[in-house]
Amino acid sequence: MQQIVFFDTEVNPISGKILDIGCIKDDGAKFHSTSIADFTNFIRGAQFVCGHNIFNHDLHYVRKAIETAGVPASGMIDTLYMAPLLFPIRPYHALLKDDKLRIDDLNNPLNDSIKARNLFWDECSAFHQTDEVLQKIFYQLLHEKDEFCAFFRFVAHENDGGDLERNIRDSFADLICSNANLATCIEQYPIETAYCLALIHCSDRYSITPRWLLKHYPRVESIMATLRNKPCLTGCAYCDQALDIHRGLKRFFGFESYRRYAGEPLQENAVRAAIEGKSILVVFPTGGGKSLTFQLPALMNAESTKGLTVVISPLQSLMKDQVDNLEKAGITDAVTINGMLDPIERAKSYERVEDGSASILYISPESLRSATIERLILGRKIARFVIDEAHCFSAWGQDFRVDYLFIGDFIKAIQEKKNLEDSIPVSCFTATAKPKVIEDIVGYFREKLSLQLEIFNAKTTRTNLAYKVFEKDNAEKYNALRDFIEEKNCSTIVYVSRTKKAYELAERLTQDGLPAKPYHGQMKVEEKTANQDAFIAGEVSIMVATSAFGMGVDKKDVGMVIHYDIADSLENYVQEAGRAGRDDSISAECLILYNDEDLNKHFILLNQTKVSIKEIQQVWKAIKDLTQFRSTVSKSALEIARKAGWDENMKEIETRVKTALAALEEAGYLKRGQNMPRIYANSILAKNAQEAIALVRASDRFDENQKDKAAFIITRLFSSKSRSRSKPDDAESRIDYIADHLGVDVKEVIHIVNILRELKILADTKDLNAFIRKGGHRKNSLEIVAAFNLIESILLQCLDELEKTYNIKELNEMAEKKGCADVNPGKIKIIFNFWVIKKWIKRYTLQHPRNYVALQFIQSKEELKVKMEKRHDLARFIVEYLYGKSKQVLEAELPEKEEVSLEFSVHELKNEFEKQTVLFKPDVSIDDIEDTLFYLSRIEAIKIEGGFLVVYNRLTIDRLEQDNKKRYKVEDYRKLDQFYENKIQQIHIIGEYARKMLEDYKSALAFVEDYFRLNYSSFLNKYFKGARGIDIKRNISPAKFKRLFGDLTTTQLNIIKDNQSKYIVVAAGPGSGKTKVLVHKLASLLLMEDVKHEQLLMLTFSRAAATEFKKRLLELIGNAAYYIEIKTFHSYCFDLLGKVGALDKADDIIKKTVEKIKSVEVEPNRITKTILVIDEAQDMDEDEYALIGALMEHNEDMRVIAVGDDDQNIFEFRGASSKYLERLIRDKQALKYELIENFRSKNNLVAFTNSFAKTIRRRLKTAPVVAKQRDNGLIKLAQVKSDHLIVPLVEDLFATDLSGTTCVLTRTNEEALQLAGFLNHKGMPARLIQTNDGFNLLNLFEVRFFLDSLKLNDDVSVISNEIWEEAKRKLKVNLNNSAKADVADQIISDFESINDKQKYKSDLHAFITESKLEDFVHKSLDTVLVSTMHKAKGKEFDNVFIMLTNFSASSDEEKRLLYVAMTRAKQRLNVYFNVDIFRGIHVDGIERCTIQSGQMPPPEMVMHLSHRDVHLGYFKYVQERMETVRCGESLIKGAEGWANSEGKLILKYSKQFNDRLAGIESSGYVLRDVKVGFILYWQGDDMKEEIKIILPELYLKRVSSDMG
User: Fold this and answer.
1) Which of 190, 714, 1000, 1414 has a CB 3.0–4.6 Å from the CB of 141, allowing a cystine?
2) What is the CA radius of gyration of the chain?
3) What is the rounded average pLDDT of the residues 1505-1520?
4) Which among 1072, 1301, 1110 has a CA at the least distance from the CA of 1208?
């Protein structure tokens, strides 16, 4: 007898050193040592040595020793190579796992050598039991090959010769093509041919070629295709049966014929082309049979070559729908792997692809970046890649996706890694495609993979659809919608453009007695599924949805599709409208409720989602920074976004990062590697956050700082766990998001998480969420389990083990007779599908009608009965356990809620099951628990969602472009830019279609036909000539463009159109529409350029200006304006430094901010901007300009638009200077525009102020201001020969016939106060524009009352509308008698006008802090306003009276102040002066006069007291007396001060003011009245809490006056 030794080694892979050797002889003698010499002696005398995978591993290290022992090369046997030949049928051999042995102990070569021995003897036995002809075929093919010759020597197989090819053809007559080129296969690839024949011979549908074999012998795939997947021209027994597409159609789908388009057999031709291995592009309409066109070739290929078809689709919900629909048809070959799956389903999907039971795999384009997915695909023979929504390849398509451009690279990499000589074919599918899109798709695959796509383009018209468009404004739409639905009374889909609108409409329709459900892409999976199922089942007849609904939804009876908001392209409209009338026998209507503003919603949405060239440049800069020291980096999308300076609140931030990376990859700057997700835990063991935090606090594994961070992390994780999960990766449990919110490095978070694992707070016990049914009108979970368990038991009992055909209806009746009341054919199919997936049965496809099924058991029924009963026990236990766990929840839930969400873990279920005290309790494993959960999910007793993960998703990036100076260029952006331009045009085109439908139905249909038929440029030339060709390039509708920019001057329009100049300075004269230009420029940036709201920053010098800009923008562009950052310099700096703004902190805040920016201590996302707009830029001081400089330095490509008028720089006293505007022009080469057309003032008023302005030196504007009004106004120059100008001015006011608004301007606050008092004394209503210098409006009693009513605790961030309205009501009821209540009212009103969406506490605080009293002055025709000249800046009035007492115009600053004052006038300008400064100015219409001296001071005097004028300390003792005091009420004179209405003293003057008042009284004035001016909150340095104080108003009259 021949002696054989079995061995295995353990080797250090780096050094090559042998660490251990194990051997066993056929007589049982064993060897276990590290000695090579002893090993040689042990095997000496043997004729054969044998091991597993020794050719690729062990022999490299011990071949010399074996040869020394006398064993020749022809005596070396490797069990690896014979295994696929002799155990080709699944589950293969129990000792094998791919190319490795299944091992119990790590690093034990003796045990492995024993397993190799057992495997070898099994191989010998299997060979002897193999059909003799097959033995002969294997021998003839393989006996001369090194891998096999020793085996044939050992088994002493003798060959009697014979014709090998003939033997194969005879043995495989009906299993391979009779005309296949078998001779070439035998001659050139005998090993590959043998493996193929072994697999074919086993006749098992789901047995596949092992992964290792595909890698080592890649030609196996092409040999299998040659033998079984290339239909011969002449036909043969095999091809006529297996590759006949009509038989396949009938067998798999039960259809007799293929769909035809306009009489052409396009579907049949496309399927035939796929079966023939061609690459194809299929353009079929919605509902046109696309899915079957790729599913049938996939199923047929799986039977013939064991191939896997990979379907790449961007729509996760569509993938699941298609898998479910196939299962309903009895086809269990398809799986999907995507984020919507729970962990159990996901694991089963991986397993089914790996073991061959799945032949169709649905994945997303992003999944191609996954190393796991790549490994899965490399382990299978790939029959074909199918790309759905193939228009995404083209920038001319309606939905270009950059991640699609990676598909070709991925397929190429797969081909290279599998060493394939032949290309893997592809099938591309789309519902709508213009000629240019088809050209792009074909070109892409020709360039990337050298594939030539055969095109199948269905040009068909749906004759049962009637298209109509109705022009309706927003107010009319709902009633029209309701009327149409009531009139038609059929299944209806209503399409809207926003998720919020879907909910609102569905709710409103339901309230009106028309039951409707909402649907959108961001919905939770369970809600989405429930709503879709309810609509398909007819439980509700109306679905209100975004465009996410309808893909793959097969509902034949939809009688109406209404676009409440028009679609964003003709392609999408045709697809969405095409969901009506799927049943050709019904007539359906497709309606659009159209208005022009719908188009602008699409334009705004496009701009929000667009990834601009600047954003890609920012990402490229971030990548360069991250790869300074190494060319490869692994970071999460969020980390890259933050490095790029993006705001983490940016919509779809991760998608945008990946799009930018894909664009950089396409341009050759970098290469994205595989994603590197790392899960750090999938369960929380602590019962609650408090328990976990207590464990942390008690642990010595953390320092104090880390304990705080760990507590924060725990809080976030519990927040994530308690939330029903709508997305696969909740930011609450993402390592990178936690690090970002903590402001620490990712590594520190990982370190803390690892310690939390050590403390048993986190673990890997698989936390899941389940939804169980409570009952009601639907079966509860326990009843469902009981019903399915009974059905399954009856079926297992009654079915034969051998193959047999059953009528499902008969099985259904049989189950009913056996007492199963809840059985139906659908439930029987669910059980059969489960059995197939679990590999209990083999199901055969039949030519019979659909209610027949042929089955054969793979395992014995006795074994299966044991498994089934264990699963049934577990299923009952799990549902009962979850019910028990949820008892409190169930009692608390509202009765109408049918499902309850619960958290649990797989390990928890196992532990609880094992705690049961029952006899004969079966042993259960984690696999048993997961199988049972899978079963419960399949029968819909419970719905499982992926539970909790602590995860860190990193992207791997290899930098290719090493030049740091290289920037992403415009030409690199061409493809993306082309797509966005095309999207703009598509929106215009759908709008044009709607307009044509309103005018001429036939013309509109011809328009649509031409769109899809003509070359795109020909189409545009035909329908968009001349000016229309310009309109179609703008991302705004023509009507809105006209509204926005139709009435602008040429210069204004040029400023708005300028999107090239990096720096712009607008020198804007008074009344030139500066605010209008800025508002329209902001609108243009948002609506017509690449600028998103988070990229834009506008800085102003007052809160009032910021509010005014926000108000005007809201009027102009709507809700988009809410998100624009318009701030004062100070509030922006407070924000950057994370401080709360206040006057007493504002002195050096800008300087500090600049220092922080320069030292990189400010978050990059807060200062990363692409546009900076500066209002009133002439008022910048050194610090403010330094801030601008720091922002420009941080953002090297930032565009700066500075608008101002150097002639109006009136704040030089605080350091403001127009020299900074000059620096922008000089140092930055800013382009200067001059706005010199004055729309405000009459012709001669402009001429007058122009003449005066000439006296100002060194001005920016070179041209004089030009009046747009040609008529003259009134100018009066009155020189008073006295120092007392008040009385003559007031007398003139009374004598003048005034119309419109009037304002009196003075140089000082004191003068303004006296003037207002005198006017009111004379009976003319006057109001002083007051200031709150010296106190913040936060401290105003009326404002504080409102804030206190809001109850803004520390944990409140957003103020609810209910609380807001209640606080307003309280203010009105309690303080309606306060003279300052209107200040609070106006603050509230202004805040509401710019914060309609949500009211944030921090925003309200900042708004009030920055507000000034002068901001809330509202003009009245009946009231004269009195103000200082400084406060009048930015305002305008019909009539302006200016009082210039001893006014010197010697300095430019004083001249500019007077220039500002005079340019406020629109129609009349009266100036009263006692120093002539207008000599030499001559214009039309001036009235000059002289008023002689002798005038006395005014008879009335008013004084507003400040903090220093009152005894502040005294108020502490009279707080209770002040409770009922209100602003405006008069106080009563007391012995030592002033008293309230009850006579109790509440006010005393300071000693300093008492002295001052005595001096005033000695000059002839007596105190007439004292009123409460302001009630304020104040806190002294030595005080622990605030107190209320009063700042009074004093009214004095002149005793000796003979006037008035």
Assistant:
1) 190
2) 42
3) 93
4) 1072
